[in-house]
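Hello, quick one for you while I still have it in my head. Could you read through the record and tell me how the tokens relate to the sequence? No rush at all, and the record is pasted right below.
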Amino acid sequence: REHAIHAEAPVVFQSDALDVACWRQLYFDAGPFDLIADWEWTGECRQRLRAGGQWTDISMPIHPVHPYFEPSITGDSGGRVWLAFADNNSGNWESPEQALRILRKTATGDWEGADQGRETVALPMHPSLALLADTAYVAVTTSDEQVGADAKKKGRYTRHIEVFEVTWPAGGIQTWKSVLTTVNAIDGTGDT
């Protein structure tokens, strides 16, 4: 698109009927260069029918997105497209507390779930999404905040995996539950 200066982290999904591609994109702001911190990342997604269709924009309902936006994409038997991703809900991408979101694009073209999700996840990255009927399983890398002067440096966080079970009936509300974590798995004090 016009004025885009970076497009990165592409992710693709393919079903029997549909191809979907998503990535993050940074747009050029014509303002003063010292305002670069205010430039916003957008989530870009396109889809096409496998039977020779043209690529069409399936605009994200959340804007801006996290600077590390890289969704996991899957689909279900009802023709819906599902995305799981970390959301920059605080407006500060360095904040330890971020959100995980699952969006669902219905066969009629509407997005569901933009106002739902798990709101307090410590620095979530690299989500992975799997479906079983209307239940989703989201695995994500998260962190434990460390105490001390360097606590805000991401390299000072202990990284681990957390898996959430998300129940989401058609037309209903998401219910998130942590079902597995690798916190302290090495010393035997965590769930494995």
Q: What stands out?
A: The longest strand covers residues 4-14. The chain is about 0% helix and 50% strand.
